[in-house]
């Protein structure tokens, strides 16, 4: 019976990893649109978001299956319950990636996207945070989960630097409309980072029985 339960948990972990990997790919593709508007890539991000929605339903069904068939208790129950909560954050990350792609595709053709390299650095930091947050869940790594808040502070600091830089370049005759688009992209990245923190908090709940 325990072996079957462990197999079900591994399958659940695999599904969560696949969903998170899809999100990572979508974020990277969305940010790449800053370098070159590509309708096919933008459509890929939209398709990824739709697949994320499908993963959410599949994982919900897997969790319910475990609840009904295995009737987990204690830490096992918390682990499955946490996965059920986490996929809400993962689904919203997919939405945020799609939002970023749509903003990038709507930027003016003559917009100088190279004037804000911090956006790409922020995106990289955000993706790394998400990866480490998911790793902490798969491995039930409490120490790693508790470090995610510090990584979120780094992402938040990027947002502040980008905001200040935008103020400066608007003064230098940068398109104010494009500046608003850039700050929205940074805001969506910040939200993705916050979702990563939520995931880490659910890991802490799984291991310790309470969230931070």
TrEMBL record:
SUPFAM superfamilies: PhoU-like (SSF109755). The keyword Amino-acid biosynthesis does not apply. One of its GO terms (biological process) is phosphate ion transport. GO terms for cellular component: cytoplasm. Keywords: Cytoplasm, Phosphate transport, Transport. Its main location: cytoplasm. Residues 16-103, 119-203 form the PhoU domain. InterPro entries: PhoU, PhoU-like_sf, PhoU_dom. It comes from the Bacteria. Belongs to the PhoU family. Plays a role in the regulation of phosphate uptake. PANTHER family: PHOSPHATE-SPECIFIC TRANSPORT SYSTEM ACCESSORY PROTEIN PHOU. Homodimer. This is Phosphate-specific transport system accessory protein PhoU. It comes from Peptoniphilus harei ACS-146-V-Sch2b. The lineage of its organism: Bacteria, Bacillati, Bacillota, Tissierellia, Tissierellales.
